Amino acid sequence: MRLAVALVALLPFLAACAEHVYAPMEEVAARAWTEPGPPRLTLLTAINNRTGGGGHSALMVSGRERVIFDPAGTWRHPTAPERGDVIFGVTPPIYDIYMDYHARPAFRMVAQSIEVSPEMAARAMQLVQAHGAARKATCGISISGILRELGFTEIRRTWYPDRIMHDFAELPGVARTELYDDTEDTYAPGPRAQAAADALAGAD
Fold this sequence. Notes:
Elements: H1 2-10, H2 25-31, E1 40-48, E2 54-62, E3 66-69, E4 82-83, E5 86-87, H3 92-102, E6 107-115, H4 118-131, H5 139-149, H6 161-169, E7 175-179, H7 191-203
Antiparallel strand pairs: 1-2, 1-6, 2-3, 3-5, 4-5, 6-7
């Protein structure tokens, strides 16, 4: 009963939208972007600045191309096509926009990155694309499940994004960054990311 009450209390803070969006494959291919450097996985977590609780989990996969698996997420951008909760074309400006959208006075964004083999990055890409659109408020279960399928058995299967973040932090070689934003508008990106969006729009 206590667990059920806790889950009900958590639901408003988890990403709320579970639209089934499938952009054309031609657009996905045209927007593909590859990050220089070694393959890596980056866990993205929205953390409540007051309580320390987790509001959302996502997983960025950087291999032959860079994508963000954003289960039940609400973020959209016209130059970043989405198929089944997988966001393609994650260039540095798009990443900034994504992060700044989630960072707000009540929440900070934590990025935890770990280098992986090309084979694991390819497997992660397969898993996130095969997962499909997640149901409402299932981001934690989806992300922790993917990580465990990749062999990270230290990650417990859980609904709670902050628990995934803490487990991921125990993996060897994890690098962590945090983004705070005092922008009052809780829906639109902040000034830094908006400038990047304007630059992108001008380039198209």
